[in-house]
């Protein structure tokens, strides 16, 4: 099955990266968000990212930046998704927000359309139960920044069919991605480990064991990680980190997933990381 038109819901950091990657690969994209302001910001973000990629030759794509942008349609209307062949949902990691849209898009999108949930923790099976196409719902946990990350964590829900898995793999291959298929348990593989690491690193900071710079330096210089856990948290977004670890805490009822009070405090203070300029580090606008 050749996919030509992909719907992308959510024009935040991940949605922008997914839409950009799809357009770079020559696919047409309908990018949906409830906010016109967020869509305009997304457009500016994608243009800036494409220009930077071309300048640094970090990613390959045919044509010009304008050619890529012409493949992306921006809208606040879910009804625009009536003809999409594949849909990637990227909204905030909150069950109450995610669950509200699945019955709606299930009504609007073609019965043959695959729903790919770009989530780091929420159950694919649970979201699939909100639709009449549970066999065509799958998890695709893209990593940030999407155009630069080569591998995607693909999650099989309880009812996910072999056909859906194959369609998803073919789409990822067209994007130049590799994948690892895992089973549906909250947090999957990556975030059951990563969120614990980040959360414990924040406890280290709260307990004044070391500075953010030194915590990250140990991971980079001793273990060879390209980024430390606090730098990674800033890249993902501290609000997203908190939402994800709260999902894990609720899902497993295990105290090891208790969110660090400092993380909660920083999110309450609006310190989200790179997305708004200040988290464990301070960032200047591009």
* CATH top level assignment of the largest domain: Alpha Beta
Count of discrete structural domains: 2
Kindly name the structural category.
Answer: alpha/beta
Average pLDDT taken over every residue: 95
- Approximately how much helix is present in the residues? 40-55%
What fraction of residues sit in β-strands? 5-15%
| Counted beta strands | 8
Distance between the termini: 39 Å
CATH superfamily caption of the largest domain: NAD(P)-binding Rossmann-like Domain
Helix count?
Answer: 11
Strand order of the largest sheet: 3-2-1-4-5-6-7-8
Summarize the biggest pleated sheet. Answer: 8 strands, mixed
Shape: globular
Low-confidence stretches: none
Known CATH architecture of the largest domain: 3-Layer(aba) Sandwich
Order of helices and strands: EHEHHEEHEHEEHEHHHHH
- The gyration radius over C-alpha positions equals 19 Å
Query: Which fold name is given in CATH as the topology of the largest domain?
Result: Rossmann fold
């Amino acid at each position: 099955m050749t996919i030509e038109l992909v719907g992308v819901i959510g024009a935040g950091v991940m949605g922008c990266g997914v839409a950009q990657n799809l357009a770079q690969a020559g696919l047409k994209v309908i990018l949906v968000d409830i906010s016109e302001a967020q869509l305009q910001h997304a457009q500016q973000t994608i243009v800036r990212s494409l220009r930077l990629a071309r300048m640094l030759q970090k990613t390959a794509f045919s044509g010009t930046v304008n050619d890529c942008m012409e493949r992306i349609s921006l809208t606040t209307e879910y009804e625009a998704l009536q003809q999409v062949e594949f849909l990637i949902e990227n909204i905030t990691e909150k069950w109450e927000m995610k669950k509200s849209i699945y019955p709606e898009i299930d009504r609007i999108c073609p019965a043959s359309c695959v729903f790919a949930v770009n989530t780091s923790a929420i159950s694919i099976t649970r979201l699939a139960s909100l639709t009449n196409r549970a066999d065509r719902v799958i998890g695709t946990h893209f990593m940030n920044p999407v155009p630069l990350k080569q591998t995607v964590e693909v999650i099989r829900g309880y009812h996910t069919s072999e056909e859906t898995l194959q369609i998803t793999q073919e789409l990822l291959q067209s994007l130049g991605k590799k994948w690892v298929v895992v089973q549906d348990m909250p947090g999957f593989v990556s975030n059951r480990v990563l969120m614990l690491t980040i959360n414990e690193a924040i406890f280290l900071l709260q307990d004044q064991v070391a500075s953010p710079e030194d915590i990250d330096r140990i991971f980079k210089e001793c273990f060879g990680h390209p980024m430390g856990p606090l730098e990674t948290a800033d890249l993902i977004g501290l609000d997203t980190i908190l939402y994800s670890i709260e999902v894990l805490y609720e899902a497993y009822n295990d105290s090891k997933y208790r969110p660090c009070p400092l993380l909660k405090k920083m999110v309450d203070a609006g310190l989200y990381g790179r997305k708004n300029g200040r988290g464990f580090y301070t960032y200047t606008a591009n």
